[in-house]
Specification:
cytoplasm; methyltransferase; 7 strands; seven-stranded mixed β-sheet; globular; Rossmann fold; 254 residues
């Protein structure tokens, strides 16, 4: 339907904008879950080149019929990104990455598939580039699973949420940096009435330092407390502001 096409192209435009590409030269981008090539059309219109990967032969057939300008590869990104190191100047993905959270086969482990995807994507991207993945998470656990595997693979960055206060227009963009810790772009529509920023899930640029073997922060550590507070904020609960004293040991009184 034309409405779907319109939303797809808006999200493609926003994803490419969040990539912050250099304006003086054409770039080579990877489009993960490219489908029939709608996002690719936008990349081509902007004067860049692209290679699209998708798991659906039917969708890629449509892309071929539409004579898209990008090169197409039939592949499951859960098996990894099969390109040489540093090949891409950026990666976008529209409404695709959440599918890696589904275990379709007995042998499928979502964390392993996500890690395989992110670690090989990290390698295929040039240093200093970005990946911007728009996704429809089912719940906050899924968001945390996806983000944790991205950070494990070496990315920094985090979630940019556009129009967080709108049920219809709310969009999640996982904005990831390769080899440099950039500043996370601001989500659209995040200014509240008083001009206050909405608190979004922030992920630090420090590669998760205080993680134990299971990948969770050490219980009662500052990181653990901050994560717990962040989760509670996301659930809309009243939480005290973070300060330099958060998570500090109190001195014994006497």
């Amino acid at each position: 339907s034309s409405r779907v096409v319109e939303i797809q192209s808006q999200m493609s435009e926003r994803a490419v904008e969040l990539l912050g590409l250099p304006e003086d030269r054409p770039c080579l981008l990877l489009d993960v879950g490219c489908g029939s090539g709608l996002s690719g059309d936008y990349i081509s219109d902007e004067g860049h080149y692209w290679i699209g990967m998708d798991i659906s032969p039917a969708m890629l057939d449509v892309a071929v019929e539409r004579e898209v300008e990008g090169d197409l590869l039939l592949a499951d990104v859960g098996h990894g990104i099969p390109f040489r190191p540093g090949m891409f100047d950026g990666c976008i993905s529209i409404s695709a990455v959440q599918w890696l959270c589904n275990a379709d086969k007995k042998s499928h482990s979502p964390p392993k598939r996500l890690y395989r995807f992110f670690s090989t994507l990290y390698t295929a991207l040039a240093r200093g580039s970005r990946a911007v993945l728009q996704l429809y998470p089912e719940n906050s656990e899924q968001l945390e699973l996806i983000t944790a595997q991205a950070m494990r693979a070496g990315f920094t960055g985090g979630m940019v949420v556009d129009y967080p206060n709108s049920a219809k227009a709310k969009k999640f963009f996982l904005c990831l940096f390769v080899g440099t810790s950039g500043t996370l772009p601001k989500g659209l529509g995040t200014e509240c009435a008083e001009g206050e920023e909405v608190h979004q899930a922030k992920f630090t640029n420090e590669r998760t330092r205080f993680r134990n073997a299971k990948g969770k922060s050490v219980k009662k550590s500052r990181d653990w407390i901050l994560e717990k507070k962040e989760r509670r904020r996301r659930q809309g609960k009243e939480v005290r502001a973070d300060t330099k004293y958060t998570g500090r040991k109190r001195r014994p009184r006497f």
